[in-house]
Amino acid sequence: MKLYAKLFTLTIVSSFLLFACTDSAKTKIKNGELVWKTAESAGFEYNYIENDPSETRFYTLENGLTVILSPSNKEPRIQTFIAIKAGSKTDPATHTGLAHYLEHMLFKGTDKYGSLDWEKEKPLLDKIESLYEEYNSTTDESERKLIYQEIDRVSGQAAKYAIANEYDKIMSGMGAQGTNAFTSVEQTVYTEDIPSNVVDKFLTVQAERFRNPVLRLFHTELEAVYEEKNRSLDSDGSKVFEEMFAQLFPNNNYGKQTTIGTIEHLKNPSLVEIRKYYENYYVPNNMAIIMAGDFNPDDVIKSVAEKFAYMQYKDVPVYEVGLEKEITSPIQSEVYGPEPERLMFGYRFPGASSEDAKMLELVGEILTNGAAGLIDLNLVQKQKLLGAYAFPYVLKDYSVLLLGGNPLEGQSLDEVKALLLGEIDKLKSGDFSEDIITSIINNAKKGMLETNENYTSRAYELMDNFVLGTDWKDRLSQVKYLNKISKQDVVDFANKYFKDNYVAVYKLQGEDDNVQKVEKPAITPVEVNREAQSDFLIKIAEMPENEITPLWLDFEEDIQRIEEDDFYPVLAVQNNDTELFELKYYFETGKWSNPMLSYATGYLNYIGTDTRTAEDISKEFYKLATDFQIWVNDEDMSIRIMGLQENFEASVRLFDELLKNCVADEEALLSYIDRVKKSRQNAKENKGAIMSGLRSYAMYGAKNPFNSVLSNEELDNLTAEVLTQQIHTIANYKHSILYYGPKTADEITEIMKTVHPMPETFAEMPEATKFEQNVQTSNSVLLAHYDMVQAEIFWVRNSDFYNEANVPTVSLFNQYFGGGMESIVFQTIRESKALAYSTYARFNNPSRKDRRTSFFAYVGTQADKFSEAVDGMNELLTELPKSDKAVENAKRNQIKTIASERIIGMDILNSYLSAKRMGRDYDIRKHIYNKTGDFMFEDLQTFHKNEISGKPYTYCIVADEEKLNSSKLKALGTVKTLKLEEIFGY
Q: Which positions ≥6 away from 538 have C-beta within 8 Å?
């Protein structure tokens, strides 16, 4: 990915395998089956499936380019993906990581944009390319160092002609969001979420982007990839996954090659090989443009065909599938690292196009569906493991079923494996109810409705389906397929595939002796030319576009309200598109009022009522295709129930029964407390949790919301009766009812009076503890030691109390200074100085009007770059770099984004609650929109001077203390090394 390290794409796009168009698309299947049909419109032939709710059209242009268009006019935005069937499995064995390199370079521009003077820049880029080839063929380290110094020198000269991040500036100027890309084993995908009125601009830019990508600013981008590799080396999860695939696929590139590549290849990149890869795989017959959202397909296909006509069909290199031998006995491997111990094991299956791959998805649901799977009920709900899962990962060559578990205190990983294998044995022996398949069907129906309602989810499905190269009609036939599956079919499948043929990876705690850090090269910061603009950017900006009129929320008009003396207040928004409902109970109390609420609601998952066991309740919710979640926040609490409207009354009654009639179970409590303690221990071994604690400490002091939890002794003193009474009390707290669904407020109120009656008297809510935010008066350092390659640094500062008049300024400042890839922070820290893979900064308004604002900045870097990274960020915090053009671009992005944004569904009600907490009764976006056009750089500079420059900060640092420059630490401020007990409170 361009911003976030991801070795493998683990996106679960639905409960079941989803499919795309095949060469047999014109075949019309009879006997009641879904039928592929062919139609023509606007002079273009396309394939479609009759009665497809997504109305997706599948085009293949003359040059072989696939175009998949799925219109939806709910919001004036479009999710786009440009997918290439080229991932790490098609990397040359001698240059692994190449597809990922290329993904990064597709953001650097062409000969038409990204350059101030292409004629002067090109000879220097040619020189850099030849230097890298010389570098690759040289083995003497002293000579290599000299060559790299020359690469750095020439790169500095070439950078004077480069316009860094011009692609991001172009897209930002259109109002695009989510500008990014990712590379996985099968594919490289470029993604944008654009306003619907810039389709022609978007396609013009993309056609140019793929025409002749120029490999400029390569050595600084290569350093970003180094950082990405180092981040993966600090991730035990990534190491486990890589080891799993290496053992499952010793002959296939799934296991032989990783997406980021080997350290050896990272240190010896070849621009020649990268260009060859582009020429081999970035061809129209290996690509697809996928769009879902608000557009006319006839207009879009004309534009795509015109702009991508230059692309010529070209045979793609034949990919040789590395065939695997049958695994005849368990394979065991070990991975070491600082994170908590856990186990993953996996089985190998046929690839996506096989019938067995569809059955694998069903088996995965039977094992784990989050509610009523065998593992859910028998291992998680009965608290035999801290956590467990089964995950079907369907790929083109092969598929995999991954199972994993986290041990309880004192439990060995062998015991974890035995418990998970026990659930596999139940599949093989048929020790499960056939009703589970019926329940899965109901949830599949709900899943299809949810996906079709969201244009981004729909686009993700279509993208995955193209990459897998299978059949979209199977997605639409999902329920029909499931109805044909019997329990015996599942048993037969389980006995066919589940034998002693698995790979088990034991994640153990300890030092990883195999970790090789990618050492930092000597890099001189390069120019980023913030003010520069290519003629191409100007041309794109001048292209006409229809104006999108912003649509503001009107809380009086958009929300139906019922307020009666004898019932809860009801707020409703009607869903006229699907038969889905979402119900929320909103309480004005949270952890600050009652620390036991979190533990009580967690305990609720493991107990039943006087008439139903916990297992019965989970099964019934899953049968109804209903989910519920409880969020206990600092100062409020929400209960969310979501499902099919046809099951609304039964679902609400069931939840009310659980909440009001749950019974104490002392045995379940003892297991629950043990699991809480183990989770706490694991949190102390998690760098993300440690950093969260440091930030809270910096904001509030030694006694803060993060560590204000029940002590282990207090946990031991809890009784089942006390926690159960806490749950019963929740049902008697005052709360609001928020509803999004097909019913009106009047209709839903009458139903709720029956299924969720109001108590005769309300329970009194406890008074909340107040945590006052620190006001920093001098610089200080909070340090927590963690064994890792990287160093994580947060700058934290609390500022003045919330002022609504500053909201538009804050919004634009964040966009300009520390937001996306076109921001000042990203361009300076990453693009110019190559000091980090991930960096950002943000000024935060609070969630309640009586709180202080705050500022955060972040850099994740190699420990040996710590000093330079801190200095680089501090320079930006001291003086705000000026770029009038960047300010104008930030303004355009903000105006276009807000204009094309539509707050819909439950988000209307959530926005109302948010506004109410801030003391306003209107849509704040209108205020931001109306003010944005008036801002000048001087306004942002004044804000920076008043709020950021010269201010004291608390530096929160998680790193290996021995790898940091101690003198630099002391120079930053008073250093306090915190013990884990001080951070966590236990």
A: none
